[in-house]
Amino acid sequence: MTDLLAARSQMAMSLGFHIIFAMVGIAMPVLMVVAERRWQRTGDRIYLELAHRWAKGTAILFAVGAVSGTVLSFELGLLWPIFMEHAGPVIGMPFSLEGFAFFTEAVFLGVYLYGWDRISRRAHLAAGWAVAVSGMLSGVFVVIANAWMNAPTGIRWVDGRAVDIDPIAAMMNPAAFPQVLHMTLAAYASTGLVVAGIHAWPLLRQPRNAFHRRALAVALLIGAPAAVLQPISGDLSARFVAHWQPAKLAAMEGQFKTERGAPLRIGGWPDEAAGETRYAIEIPYALSILAFKDPHAEVKGLEAFPREDWPPVAIVHVAFQVMVGLGSYLALVSAAALWLMWRRRDLTRRRWLLRALVVAAPMGFICTEAGWIVTEVGRQPWIIYGLMRTADAVTPMPGLVVPFAVFTALYCVLGVAVAWLLYQQVLKSPQAADEDPA
Amino acid sequence: MTAGIGPAELVAGIALVALTAYALLGGADFGGGVWDLLASGPRKREQRALIAEAIGPIWEANHVWLILVIVVLFTCFPVAFARLSIGLHIPLTLMLIGIVLRGSAFAFRSHYGHGGEPSDPGMSAHWGRIFAIASVGTPVTLGLCVSALAAGTLRPPGRGGFRESYVAPWLTPFGVGVGLLTLALFAFLAAVYLTVEARQPALREDFRRRALGAAAAVFVAAFGTLGLALLGAPLMGRGLTTAPWAPALHLATGVAAVAAIWALWSRRFRLARVAAAAQVSLILWGWALAQYPYLIPPDLTIRAAAAPRITLILTLWILGAGALVLFPSLIYLFRVFKPAPR
Questions:
Q1: Average pLDDT value for residue range A324-346
Q2: Domain residues of chain A, as ranges?
Q3: What letters, b where the CB count within 10 A reaches 16 and e where it falls short, cover B121-141?
Q4: For chain B, what are the domain ranges?
């Protein structure tokens, strides 16, 4: 393994690990405060139990998210010091703002978790909202910084250096809005639906279990609307990519030849050597329409770019297919659930829906991981799109396979520990659960 | 040397304040872990419970000070950040492993079980042990990183072999001295704070004895490190002994140290807390003054490492606006969980 590959793998592994905790840290506080609010309004103790359990889950996941996020902020330098030397002053603004959002989140999470008996009900609920809002803002700021790597505005790049830096213009980069929207919705959709799926499972056997019924309802309230909106936001992201990163779009679609009226390929395997994508289902003109709103629009293929500027095509294409495929499933199931909820039907009587939700449980996270693979691997070989190559940004430190192996092992242990704890402490239904009347 | 205070010096000063806050607050949380490891005697369980109660609601907020320091460093002093990240790759990685294990293990331990009582005492104790050991190791690695800065051994990368570039700058007797001094200071702070937070007199006495012991350890480590600095980090040693401000600084630090010990001795615990915090702050500021105007001695000044002016100005605005949100929040947090005695 070369040092560059080890550095990229360590970064990918660290981001892939952290993003799960970051998403839960964004969305879980909303579930927690909605449950608490319902308890305050209705006096139903089951909602209080839910709020307590979700708060405990948030505490464990937030702690791991906070420390794995710290690792990332150091890894920017440990692995990519040359990148940070040039990009730090440009994208430092969103990171500084994120620092304060994170501060607020940590402060009020402390107040929320340990303050049940110390402050008024109203103050406690407000602390929960402060966690939810600042958690969302933290995510927004970090994604803005990442978006700049895809659309580096606010600088002129002269002789391998950034000059005429305008950090505000860098924050306003054209990737920022589509990426932030897509990621924020992903956090609510993935977290809401994983919680929904986890509670749908016991409801298959005990459909009257009051604890799981309420948990499912709150989780769907947060997750399902986001999952339904996600394809629209995805379309926005795809059109950004089509205009700003045509090579990435070509890799996502397995489009090797430049052509007018390009088809949309579903599935398939891009063969870089042969320069074609095999076994895909092709929908004529659909790619031109989706990317440019014109069936005869020209879509640039990979052949339009020098070979050394291609991202790894197969990885990007397959990850994109996984994201779109599973995301569509989530949107459909969520739409069905919302429809039934709107019609005030009892979801637990629809066993097909419960089963569909159980199947959906891990999909949001898989989608998000796949989406980040599309974003990050699709940007290669650039670390700053079109300006600085990833290979030129890596640290001169040799033997990077060692920290990669160490952090991988560490995160594996943590992942298992977190899963076990959550199962033990948060998800198990309370002893002698109440039953709702049929 | 360019005279005067510009935006670069101002941002560097704020970073020093944030680092001081991290030492006083986050450092004490690590110190709490040290005393968890060293819990002993008939009140072993109560000692651990007090530590957990003291750091539970605040450790995550305290940890963010470190993030703030890093973000300010890479935004406003990117050249310095790059050089530190390269030369200190190994100790920074070790520190990160410590940070990850400390935080996760503490959260896992705290949230085992319902309503206080752990449902699985074995697992809970196991994570408690990891929390405590990581709390001891992390301050030492932090000290090793600081020592390389202070000693002026971090050269621009690309010269010399692996040992010269990635190990020699920090793995020195002076480095080990600074590592142990950091550990002793954090343990001292924690013990002093815990004397204030303990409600049982016997428990308070436990931590008073520990605080006095830690004060002795700080004394030995501080003078040992100063000696090693004169031998191994001449730049720092000279700054700390011959600069015009040196006598005044040492006097102030000495007064704070003696005041802390006297206050502990005569059981004026709140005064001891103030004095201990002052002592640790002065030690940090002494280090910063000794290497001013260098960010990375012996060649990279604050000004030379600084980002373009617009970045510095915007960062100052964000820090100012952020402080307006941060300080009321922090004050609220500490008033809820660290109430003054009635």
A1: 94
A2: 227-350+360-397
A3: eebbeebbebbbbbbbbbbbb
A4: 28-334
